[in-house]
């Protein structure tokens, strides 16, 4: 009905007895999970259903309002409380309000009386039009069909009651008494039981009501379709839908116009240069925001109503056609100003998609948006019970204060650089793009504002205002419960930028000084959910190996840190400058498409507030894990019963601690599971927790969901793999609408989508369970899901060989990719902080090993037990591999303290490669000029080569002064290094040598050239990265040199390699000479080498698997090359249509819509005959003999007339340009 042409003219559908059924299940892993029931849904309609119904027995009414009608809005009405069979909504069209009441009075006497009483026992206002329509199942002479027996029959008491109520409350029946609304069946007479009642204001407002009743479109129902028209009117009260403020389209091409307008408006604000009072901060913040808003209004075009967003680059005309075909038929906005409505039965299926329903509050339901906002605010942001939280009763001393530093320009630039231009703005409507423009032309006002906030410890009132967008949580059975929604804060970007700066500082302080226990894995850097899962699995298997029983219990706090007053746990000015936020909840502002941003400070502050709890629940027979506001306890002893006692005592202690902090646990989100090894028996021991409302009993489960992992009692992760595979299959089912075998996005973009959206789901948590030994049953579900995704992105037939499709898509089998993930993760072990939980659990050979923690015993010979995942990852790395040091540079200290004298020159991103010759020519002229000026010039390079199966890496540099080489170096750095390490080390060494030579010869300027772009970009960064040791050495030598004299300068410039630049060629020869020297390795292995080897091993393993696997003759002919991890240039070209790339896949696999395939597939009906008359349509026939493909064959031959390749034997050599699609476009198949 929602997509049927018969209802295309309808704007509102009032349906009685709608379809109601299962549309999903609650977010639970219990086999007896709660089913979620709902009615039909459509993205083009707003669905209104009576709230609070979660069972299989659905409501009797529902109302649908079209979304694409201009100036048409709808909401739940406060005129009549919701009822399963009576529903009232307010329709606001062009500012005028009309209440529509949909009623369905069942034939069942008990339910009929209940529904009728609810309809007539509530007062109706007389301030605006009200229309009541529906199936009343009542006969009365006042609305009986002319000539029927009901004209003279005595009505029943219910009909008389309804008639009396309508007369007393000034409601009028507008039915045409000559037209029946129900057609009699099986000897029944036609009758009128579907009524349309209007109050007097509605009668006066809608003169052209146009009431009609027709059987067409009833979809088999015995009730006819009733339709009528309403429009804008002046018979209304002041309770109308507010008109939204105008919005603007931010055009990047109008940057100059906007910045000029911003500078002009900002100069008129008379902002103080150094704010000294809170009032000055308020006026300064308002002035900046107002200037940005005025500049936007002056320079940017207004956004047209209904305008579509910018099209994605992969969206083409075929995607648009597929979407149009999916709608069946396309819905269009109504040309007439009237709003039509009709009531009928619906038989379609769907899922719930409705506006915000009434919310439970104060023992009832609230429907008005203002009341909903109050209810949601009361739930999300309860008032703090005390203005200050004291930690002294908990025995936790306050941390000492550290000096604070002014915010620097570089900090703001860093925060803005990582901000998305599409982030949702706050009340003033200024996004990050505008803030970047404003800061680029006038940085001082914003910098002074931020430093004033820190100095005074005050956050301007306009920046404390947050618009709260209410986001429905998925898979919730009761949408009237406020807990079924998630509040997302829409802040002013001017405020969010400040909070990002403060957040970065807090994260640095917490990591540098170990302020937050490392058992808190969330809200900080260099940790993740995978780290918590690794530690949990390691500790559980360790306790099993020691003969202990293990129980796992986790809970979630009910109030986040953003609801609490700022606490002196971390007494810095940054905390006090961002407190006392005011929230404005907008219950009807639902996010569509992209989730709006939240509060940047929320995760780190939540982690800070977890410090007292983590310190209070320490126990020698338990380990704790936390992720922001999720707290977990792993207890171990000689029995599960003892573990439950330990968990119960710890939970009670935690609850008392939370009360002292103004927090509480959400007990419904608490779970318990007993981990059992092979030799242990399962247990049913329970936990009893005491709280303010009494006691709660938590029973153990077989499978629990924790941080996205599905944990079973045996900890074998079979359930986790199954759930991940099912989730990936669901994602793939949705992606199918974007492409099929003949139309849709290109194969290149489909591959990107699969790698970004599907494969991370399949591999989530694989570091914990994958070890590669006899795990075929574990890998099969996710491999099958990947096979489905490969078939989709290539556009192949279901019968196509999956190994060939993996080859063509350049995506390795899942077990090879999982092994590569494990190896890459192992390289990061030495990058973790020394006191991180994973670092402490590493084996004894590692310097971060903590002997106070329980560790697994030494493995016995022929041990069959599954090893600890941390021990397994450690075996893939080495204790003396390259390490990385975090927190070297505070955020307020710029990475380049000499911006004018330490410069790094490289081409802008996206520069074409054909400019290399021009860049080399300019570099040669620059080198000649620098030589005449007396600048010290250096050239550095690295080299890598494999000789006799041994990798050799060389480093070389050459230093020239006044056209004479004054210094040179060549050396080797060992077999377990890579070319990037050599390039980085060469830059560090040449800077050290140049600075020493420059000091001794009184040279002020140094200019260094390198042909490695990545090394030039990262050499001065001190954040953890590969070859960080080279960056540390470079910064030490370069910064010391520049500090000695303000006239000194250093320039590091990229030049293209092997481009006839004499100095670069000289450095290359020196680096090659270093291959023959005795290597001097710095580490057992570098991080770059380890990742490179992981990639090479994956390619080799895939190549061996491809060579060992038998292939069909067609695959052997058309795919002779070994597989590669990089997509072939043919499929890399996004201009190739989907139909052409899919047909090429069909040819290369031998599974396509041609005769020989139909002949060998018995389940396919069709002739194997070619359209040209040949009895057998084969691929060679299409390529070489079919007369209908002559034109395509000429193009194919022309493309290969000078190529020795046979296009039949090597289609992958056809080419990578636009010509590839021509031979396959017009095939007669």
From TrEMBL:
Keywords: Nucleotidyltransferase, RNA-directed DNA polymerase, Transferase
Coiled-coil residue spans: none
Organism: Rhizoctonia solani
CDD domains membership: Rnase_HI_RT_non_LTR
Region feature Disordered, mapped onto this chain: 296-315, 844-865, 1196-1219
GO molecular function, one term: RNA-DNA hybrid ribonuclease activity
Domain RNase H type-1: 932-1076
Pfam family, one: RVT_1
Domain annotation Reverse transcriptase: ranges: 452-711
Record-given protein name: Reverse transcriptase (RNA-dependent DNA polymerase)
InterPro entries: Endo/exonu/phosph_ase_sf, Endo/exonuclease/phosphatase, RNaseH-like_sf, RNaseH_domain, RNaseH_sf, RT_dom
Source taxonomy: Eukaryota, Fungi, Dikarya, Basidiomycota, Agaricomycotina
Comp. bias (Basic and acidic residues): 844-861
Biased composition (Basic residues): 302-311
Superkingdom, natural source: Eukaryota
Gene3D superfamilies recorded: Endonuclease/exonuclease/phosphatase (3.60.10.10), Ribonuclease H-like superfamily/Ribonuclease H (3.30.420.10)
